[in-house]
Amino acid sequence: MIPEKIKEELAKHMASVKEIHEQDVRIGYGEVSLPDALEKKYPNAAKEWGWQWVFPAQKLSVSVNPRTGKVMRWHIHPAAIQRAVKEVVIKAQLPKMASRHTLRHSFATHLLETGHNIRTIQELLGHKHVNTTMIYTYMIRKKPSEVRSPLDSL
Q1: C-alpha of 36 from chain center
Q2: What is the mean pLDDT of residues 116-130?
Q3: Is the pLDDT of residue 126 over 70?
Q4: What are phi and psi of 63, to 5 degrees?
Q5: In this structure, what are the phi and psi dihedrals at residue 75, rounded to the nearest 5 degrees?
Q6: Which of 76, 103, 125 is the last residue of a domain?
Q7: d(C-alpha 118, C-alpha 108), whole Å
Q8: How far apart are CA 76 and CA 61, in angstroms?
Q9: How far apart are CA 9 and CA 18, in angstroms?
Q10: Which of 19, 80, 93, 96 is in the most buried spot, having the most CB atoms within 10 Å?
């Protein structure tokens, strides 16, 4: 799910990523690594726009992919995302540490607080078992005095 507030900015980002991809293809690169089965089933897919990274690395890899023997552009490293989150936390002068995983927990907790189904949240988070998703429910416990009767919503 993509928030409406960022769709325009995301579209601009994707246009710039597509330009990078097209430039890579023009100079003989522009492939991403695909799992073996997909690579065999769709031999041209690695160069197709739909398979490219949303957040590609700034530069082509300096090393050759050992499986394919090709130079590729990979995705940005997770550590780069963590550094960016850390910078935002410092700029915002938050009193506590936060990480990209904190954002995941906040996302799940807010979905639960707004009444979304636990199975939907399980699917969105990619959890195999609902028990993993259930850990977020402890965050939204309410006192009996805070619970409203469904009849009051009518």
Answers
A1: 23
A2: 93
A3: yes
A4: -110, 160
A5: -80, 165
A6: 76
A7: 9
A8: 11
A9: 14
A10: 80
HSE (CB half, 13 Å, CA atoms) of 84?
A: 9
Q: Tokens at residue 141, please?
A: 């416990």
Tokens of 26: 């023009």
Distance CA 119, CA 115 (A): 12
Q: Residue 101's closest CA among 119, 118, 81? A: 81
Do 70 and 86 fall within a single domain?
no
Q: Which amino acid is at 139?
A: M
pLDDT at 68: 82
149 falls within a domain: no
Sign of the dihedral defined by the CA atoms of residues 106, 108, 113, 116, in that order:
positive
Q: Let me know if residue 17 belongs to a domain.
A: yes
Q: How far apart are CA 90 and CA 76, in angstroms?
A: 22
What is d(CA 32, CA 34) in angstroms, rounded to the nearest whole number?
6
Confidence of residue 142 (pLDDT cuts 50, 70, 90): low
- Domain of 47 in residue numbering reads as 4-76
Determine contact, residues 118/137, Cβ cutoff 8 Å. yes
83's CB contacts (< 8 A; 6+ apart) are none
Q: What is residue 76's DSSP assignment?
A: P
Token code pair at residue 33: 């690594």
pLDDT at 153: 72
Q: Could you tell me if residue 138 is inside a domain?
A: yes
Residue 56 shares a structural domain with residue 28: yes
